[in-house]
Design a protein that fits this description.
13 strands, membrane, 319 residues, transmembrane helix, hexosyltransferase activity, 8-stranded mixed beta sheet
């Protein structure tokens, strides 16, 4: 039996009120219960400000030949230094105008933040969003990148998203893949077909997805990209950002950014990188040493400690 709380209605004890007052109170409670709403979460990066920004990175050029957005952990400032002293150095690719921007989130370490402020002032290649830098916040990092390009770099001819443990042979890209900039509504990546990739429901797994996300689905229901390296035609960037404004947050960034958002834009085409990408370090070195400038790999996944060796092999082929 449910026990009602003692209430006062119109100055009377519940036990002395009239039946119609109880009915009115009951109806009022039902109305309140019906108006409760669950707040839908959207990417924080849509409305959050920038902690650090370098909005003029593209404005000094009439055309940016290639804009490369590098996902970097906020704590990896030493890694960023290594990358800047190897392949992430725009002066190497002149007369082409190549722009690199590192995308990071926030840290609660004030000493680290001071390091990053100095880094940004020195290199002017940091965009820091007002969200915690974490694995499950990569969607926010990606949306921030879409926003930044939309606001600051519409003059880019080609946009590439890359993880900081990957490598692009920019020399080969500019020589053999310049045709990509002519494509419209185009995504070039390691393509994963619709209904090919299982949704991970095991709570112990790194890629665990809660049951209330894509309920009833066992596989991801859209074509999307493995996000290690993704080439995007500049014309779809603003459309992807607008789509994010109306698309609830989903933490698996590869699927959100390169699956869900493109599915909302009519006419988007995917092309698979196929043999132009590898994640096998030995294959990279062997290919560069044997085939030299004819090596087919334009992009590769690697480790920080191997970047210098790969870069040296690339430079040897230019001699």
């Amino acid at each position: 039996m449910r026990i009602l709380p003692i209430l006062r209605i119109k100055g009377q004890d519940l036990f002395s009120v009239k039946r119609k007052d109880i009915i009115n109170y009951s109806n009022h409670r039902k109305f309140q219960e019906r108006t409760v709403r669950t707040r839908t979460r959207y990417p924080e990066a849509i409305r959050a400000g920038y902690i650090l920004n370098n909005p003029n990175a593209c404005s000094s050029y009439k055309k940016v030949s290639c804009l490369i957005l590098v996902y970097s952990k906020v704590t990896y400032w030493r890694v960023r230094e290594i990358l800047r002293h190897t392949w992430i150095n725009a002066t190497l690719y002149q007369p082409y105008n190549v722009v690199f921007m590192f995308l990071i989130g926030t840290s609660d370490d004030p000493k680290l933040q001071d390091i990053i402020k100095n880094e940004s002032a020195k290199y002017q290649d940091i965009v820091q969003g007002d969200f915690v830098d974490s694995y499950r916040n990569l969607t926010n990092k990606g949306v921030m990148g879409l926003r930044w390009v939309t606001e600051n770099c519409r003059n880019a001819e080609m946009v590439i998203k890359i993880d900081d443990d990957a490598f692009i042979n920019i020399f080969k890209l500019l020589k053999d893949f310049s045709h990509l900039k002519e494509r419209k509504k185009f995504i070039y990546c390691n393509k994963i077909e619709k209904d090919d990739m299982p949704i991970e429901r095991n709570k112990r797994n790194k890629w665990y997805v809660q049951e209330d996300s894509f309920r009833g689905y066992s596989y991801y229901p859209h074509t999307y990209c493995s996000g290690i390296v993704v080439f995007l035609s500049i014309d779809i960037i603003p459309s992807l950002y607008r789509a994010a404004m109306a698309t609830p947050f989903f933490w698996v960034d590869d699927f959100y950014l390169f699956g869900i958002l493109p599915s909302k834009i009519p006419g988007v085409r995917y092309e698979d990188m196929g043999g132009n990408f590898t994640d096998r370090h030995r294959d990279i070195i062997k290919c560069l040493n044997e085939k030299k400038i004819q090596c087919q790999y334009v992009a590769m996944m690697t480790k920080f400690i191997r970047i210098t060796k790969i870069w040296d092999a690339v430079l040897q082929n230019l001699l």
